[in-house]
Amino acid sequence: MSELDEARPSPASWPAVRRLAAAATLVLVVGCGAQRDEPSRQAAAAPPPEVGVVTVELGPVGLVDELPGRLEASRVAQVRARATGILQKRLFREGSDVKAGQPLFLIDPAPLRATLASAQASLARAQANLAQATAQAERYKPLVEANAVSQQEFVNAQAAQKQAEADVAAGRASVQTAQINLGYASVNAPIAGRIGRALVTEGALVGQGEATQLAVVQQIDPIYVNFTQPAAEALRLRAAIEKGRLAPVSGRDAGEVRVVLEDGSVHPQAGRLLFSDLTVDPTSGQITLRAELPNPQGALLPGLYVRVRLEQAQAQQAVLLPQPAVARASQGDSVRIVGADGRVETRSVRVGGSQAGRWVVLEGLKGGEQVIVDGFQKIRAGAPVKPVPWRPPGAAPVAGAPASAASAAPAAAASAAGR
Fold this sequence. Notes:
It contains seven helices and 20 strands. The protein is an alpha+beta fold. Strands 2-9-13-12-11-14 form a six-stranded antiparallel barrel. A four-stranded antiparallel sheet has the order 6-5-3-8, with no helix packed on it. Strand 16 and strand 17 form a beta hairpin. The radius of gyration is 47 Å and the shape is elongated.
């Protein structure tokens, strides 16, 4: 018998060998199954992901429209030369603030003084003639009664007296006109405001044939802002208020406007709505509105393009949500909320516009519901989540809050960028 035959098990020992092989196979299968079930057990034991949420608190929310507009001076006056002459002096600094009645230009007064002197001389001559004519008429009065002079001579004396009186009146008017023209030699500011550049220089002949424009004074405190709104939108707001879906603005905020400058900053002082135009522009379908705005520092200049924020109505049961919380789509807007069972639900909502980086949600939510703002990359519909209070980007972390909650704001920014 060979060594190989000796190592081969005998037929009598084959059942034992089979039992050992089966046991080894069973152990191997059980071990592989345990390895495959280990990730499932780990997944089942992992806690639900944290998401930043805000709690819905329904209440009155003002519906603010942001409309395009331009600034305009509240008063504009053109400074013109009303007397003819040579411009001698400019008495103001260009771009400065002037007061009403302040001298701005000086026109050569010498010719005007000469005209006044001539008018005064003519008045003196007329007054002398009047005295002579009056004395003659009074002398003829008793003579005509005594038939010492004819009636015709007496009538002529009375007519001469009245003509002399008319000459005196004309002379006084000429003197007054000359005095007015002499006063026009000093060109004064018609209103208080800010004056621009001088349109003429010293030595120029002004007022020859027409009132020459010398400068422009604009009053910019307060300043007007003219802005436009689609007429259809104004009609929809009015209809919603009449039907009770929206409430009119009342109290302190009624007619209040805020101006947003081109760099995104907001003018610190609020203005007030003055009027809405009575007609609609047929070419654009827009209606023009005007508001008055305080401008004590003169920072706002006429002609500047701005955006006007105007609250025209109020929604009684609405909520403001951060923009990352609302998914805008052509088929409708939606949000994700944490349901009563702690699982993610999708809810359709109706958005009524935006305010200061937040959406105004008019319908679709109930008070007390938790809306997910960030953490979208970690969740799926129907999956359980752990809600934590959401904080805006840059907000200080709350003491004692978990580390994952402290990172909610950066997560919201990353989520918004990813969406």
